[in-house]
């Protein structure tokens, strides 16, 4: 089928502001958007810049705003979008070139919530035992691939780039609810700050954007309740 | 425009109605306080001014804003305190819109004839 692809492009060395570039090309319904932009880059215009790595929905490199919704270019098929495809860089992060944004502010927020196991007890001789029930409490939030589709779909994040954002809260949730971890109070303290957890206005864009189907808003609400009842 | 779904529009409407009501409240406090200058002061003149039809239409919008903001606030409380609220947030939002419309019917019944000058 013939498709029409519109890409918001920007080269800071040549362009005063971003502009829309349009391309007409042949594609199959079973092609992924990543196949389409790979084809554009390899066969049509080598200057088109975007990130991709694994191309199988695991590395989280190719989150883009595709037809008005954040998704991974490697996980969405042309047949599900139709003949007109619009691609923009994800919002709220500075655009470096074309579809590439500066992810540093995103990773700074991620690091701020101490996304690592904290337990000062000496390691037991065997494993640190955790029951299946205790593991299930935070199962969903272990699935995050840090693609930023959630954080950059959040209306609060668009207007306040210092908001930690859903991805950071999801990764805090993963450790706060881990029965073996002892750093919950410290993390809740970070989340209780002005640009932390309470900026969430439950718009659910994050939950709908997540390519890993993490129930993000539910996780954020669980952390809110933890902060409310446990204190920080 | 980001193609968000129910949650995004619930948030946008909640924010817009919240800001509008805050501004309205400010205006309301100012005009009611004019009563301090007595019956011959500016209060009655202002009241007559507000009886013009554009302000009547505005009144419908204000009531819709109050009702929506209150009901969606209850939806937010349910989401904040129960798993159930998060799971059914979209259905709850349609409920909020439905109830706002339902409550709007008697409001329209009262105010529209006043606007048309038949009451």
Describe the protein.
The complex is a heterodimer of chains A (232) and B (119). The longest helix of chain A has 15 residues, at 216-230. In chain A, strand 6 (95-97) and strand 7 (100-101) form a beta hairpin. In chain A, helix 2 (104-112) packs parallel to helix 5 (165-176) and helix 5 (165-176) packs across helix 8. Chain A is of the alpha+beta class and 232 residues long. Helix content of chain A is 31%, strand content 15%. Chain A has two domains: 2-101, Roll (Ubiquitin-like (UB roll)), CATH 3.10.20.30; 104-231, Alpha-helical ferredoxin (Fumarate Reductase Iron-sulfur Protein, Chain B, domain 2), CATH 1.10.1060.10. Chain A contains eight helices and seven strands. Chain A is elongated and about 60 Å long. The relative contact order of chain A is 0.13. Chain B is mainly α. Chain B has a single domain, classed as Fumarate reductase/succinate dehydrogenase, transmembrane subunit (3 helical TM bundles of succinate and fumarate reductases, Up-down Bundle). Chain B has five helices and no strands. Chain B has helices at residues 6-33, 42-50, 53-81, 83-87, 89-116. The longest helix of chain B has 29 residues, at 53-81.
